[in-house]
């Protein structure tokens, strides 16, 4: 153990606990508003899960997967490449270089804004103090006027699984790319599970996915998931739906995974596509490696929030109002720790609100929607109300789904499975929700988000000139289908 070189005391107007996208955004905004800021981060670099072991490294690897797939698939259109030669050390180095340039950028922004960065694990010791213990044994006590908690979340663990076995991975381990397993099982058909499936499939692993619910990416409309499901069903060895993993046992030859097919009355394995009754999971099977991606848990219980009087619920979430205030007036909370969806772009938005309110501005979190994107191949993106939600809420809506098979741009890139769907209020035509599945859907959804925020109706979107030929046109076409002005496809008048 390192000897304790001493303890420090700091005093600040605002302390931000956690240097992920929410935390550093809050710190930067607070500093820009003229407040004195201390930012606490437990790791040596800023950026949190998203930049270091989440969104950014996964996107670098997903781009690699896209290059591999596109090169392979263009063989049928006359451009043949050899089998890819994979140098894992170089791939890892490239991924690390992407995160490093952003880490360095953040370190520069901290300096430019004259923010005091304290490295170590911070815990509340009272309603106005946080104590930070560094790995070197230094203790820093920070006295603050106001605090913003941005301490994030961690991967959910299933207690009976053998986590000390290196063949059992969470998303952080999976991104390390230590090796390419021959036979990989992914537990959880959510966004993380399917993004990592895309990466490891491109690298040559045989993929099986097991999902508890009756569709992959639960929460998104089924018609948007179907094109993704159809494609990965051909690529992967198995996709078992409505199936639970009951145990994982470490054996010499691999991890023995037992499945429960009877966990639901409907359990029949694969049937996301209506009429598709694929085979169900076996009782047990041996895998080289298993990735568990069954969600994330908030870090509310590890920061001693109770010492400050901040209420943390059973799961570890901290409740906040629209101004991001906790039950303690001068303590704010943002990001994964305040609730779902656990997305970086929600956290950054909340971070700005908290910093502005703390600085005395009239701000509040009033975004109409937080878009979701699965960076799979094809990508799936959605925002606003899903069709399922519109039905559940008894809303009188109209919908249109434009097939990308009629998009010249989509066909030109060798893909035709995409769909752009729009949901509008029947009486006014006002956009309520939209979703896309297809190449770059994650980029395209931003226009629909803007349309929703601006209160646009289908006519506004349809009369907006979209450049041709682009995938962005598909939102305009879907809107024209609602307005009845579409000419790119033929819709029989009823
Ligand atoms: P998730 O909640 O999105 O998906 C987990 C899936 O696991 C669900 O489909 C769930 O039904 C299933 N599941 C749960 N228990 C299971 C079990 N015992 N057996 C089989 N399946 C089981 O969680 P995630 O994919 O781990 O992602 C965590 C968080 O991170 C989410 O909030 C997600 O939105 C966020 N994230 C977002 C992105 C992105 O925006 N592209 C990328 C990665 C993660």
Please write the CATH class name of the largest domain: Alpha Beta
Q: Main β-sheet: number of strands, strand sense, barrel status?
A: 7 strands, mixed
Helix fraction, binned, reads 25-40%
Q: Count the beta strands.
A: 22
Rg, rounded, reads 24 Å
- Any idea what the shape is? globular
Q: Briefly note the structural class of the backbone.
A: alpha/beta
Count of runs of 4 or more consecutive helical residues? 13
Poorly predicted tracts of residues: 263-278
Do you know the CATH architecture of the largest domain?
3-Layer(bba) Sandwich
Termini separation comes to 78 Å
What is the name of the CATH topology of the largest domain? FAD/NAD(P)-binding domain
CATH superfamily of the largest domain: FAD/NAD(P)-binding domain
How many separate structural domains?
3
Taken as a percent bin, the fraction of beta residues is 15-25%
What attributes does this structure have?
single chain, 494 residues, alpha/beta, FAD/NAD(P)-binding domain, 7-stranded mixed β-sheet, 22 strands, globular, binds nicotinamide-adenine-dinucleotide
How are the SSEs placed, and which strands pair?
Elements: E1 7-17, H1 21-32, E2 37-41, H2 48-53, H3 55-73, H4 88-112, E3 116-119, E4 121-126, E5 129-133, E6 139-149, E7 153-155, E8 168-169, H5 171-176, E9 183-187, H6 191-203, E10 206-210, H7 222-235, E11 238-240, E12 244-251, E13 254-260, E14 284-287, E15 289-292, E16 296-298, E17 331-333, H8 344-358, E18 372-374, E19 379-384, H9 387-392, E20 397-403, H10 408-412, E21 419-425, E22 431-438, H11 441-453, H12 458-462, H13 473-483
Parallel strand pairs: 1-2, 1-6, 2-3, 6-17, 8-15, 9-10, 9-15, 10-11
Antiparallel strand pairs: 4-5, 5-6, 7-16, 12-13, 13-14, 18-19, 19-22, 20-21, 21-22
Helix pairs in contact: 1-8, 3-4, 3-6
The chain binds nicotinamide-adenine-dinucleotide.
